[in-house]
Design brief:
With 141 residues, the protein is of the alpha+beta class.
Length: 141
């Protein structure tokens, strides 16, 4: 299971933008966000304003889904991650440092940071063979 997570982390390390889907229970919303990913905490760190539709949605329903993809028309190079998790206010100083290390210019903007604690990943990686899927789920406590 850890090896699968490390393969997912290697893919995520090559990218920096995710797409995120949220809902308040009635309306759906999608957006894109810059991210930093922490393998040990299995979490994305993102910045976003309270005035956005997706943050208003997560105040009612913190469960989210999203993707990170490599944009290509070459079938043999297709790679992408689908994820599900919980969108939470960020209070972890280590994760805050990770975000600003990844995006140092953001520090001057003093953004509100959030954590997406992941409970499910599916990596599609055609470089390993057509339609190859790697699944990771948060172990039950």
């Amino acid at each position: 299971m850890r090896n699968n997570l490390e393969k997912i982390d290697a893919f995520l390390a090559k990218h920096h933008v995710l797409s995120l889907a949220t809902t308040d229970g009635l309306e759906l919303s999608a957006c894109t966000l810059f991210y930093a990913f922490d393998l040990e905490k299995i979490s994305f760190v993102v910045a976003s304003s309270n005035e956005t539709t997706h943050i208003k949605n997560i105040s009612k329903n913190p469960n989210v889904a999203g993707t990170v993809v490599l944009e290509t028309k070459t079938v043999g190079k297709i790679e992408g991650v689908q994820f599900r998790g919980e969108f939470l206010p960020l209070d972890d100083e280590g994760l805050k440092k990770l975000y600003f290390k990844s995006f140092p210019y953001a520090f001057a903007m003093n953004p509100k940071l959030w954590q997406i604690k992941i409970n499910y990943f599916k990596l599609t990686d055609n470089t390993l063979g057509f339609g190859k899927k790697i699944i990771w789920t948060q172990p039950s406590l």
